[in-house]
Amino acid sequence: MMMYTILTCTIMGLWVLIGLYFGYMTIRDDIRNEMERRAKRKKEKLSQTPLSRKNN
What we know:
This protein is mainly alpha-helical. It has helices spanning 2-47, 50-55. The chain has a domain at 2-40.
């Protein structure tokens, strides 16, 4: 009976760690995509001429 408890706890622990890892990776990827999107938008804004900026 003790062996099943240890095995179950080990499997549950691994499951939780894998879930946390994938959650962290997803959040990290979202943050990176958002930073790239903001940098691209800022670069596009800076590359516009003053006249086109006035029209927007």
